[in-house]
Design goal:
The mean pLDDT is 86. It is built from one helix and two strands, in the order ββα. The protein has one helix at 41-69; strands spanning 18-21, 28-31. The protein is an alpha+beta fold and 70 residues long. A two-stranded antiparallel sheet has the order 1-2.
């Protein structure tokens, strides 16, 4: 008996897929959702972790400035 080869499902296109630049790594990727900003979930996670670290550093610097003014 011949086995059937099952093809993976195509992503559902909610709009016309277009090439976009990833906000984190700057690589070009095919945007399949209009709100998609990153090429992969790993890239999205790295961007969020880095931006969170930057915000923490900024807040710590601001807090240090306030402490000095007391």
């Amino acid at each position: 008996s011949a086995s059937l080869h099952v093809l993976p499902k195509e992503p559902r296109m909610s709009f016309r897929a277009t090439a976009h630049e990833c906000e984190h790594c700057k690589r070009e990727y095919l945007q399949v959702r209009k709100w998609q900003r990153f090429c992969t979930s790993a890239c999205r996670d790295r961007w969020h972790n880095e931006s969170k670290a930057k915000r923490i550093e900024e807040l710590e610097a601001l807090l240090a400035k306030v402490e000095v003014q007391k």
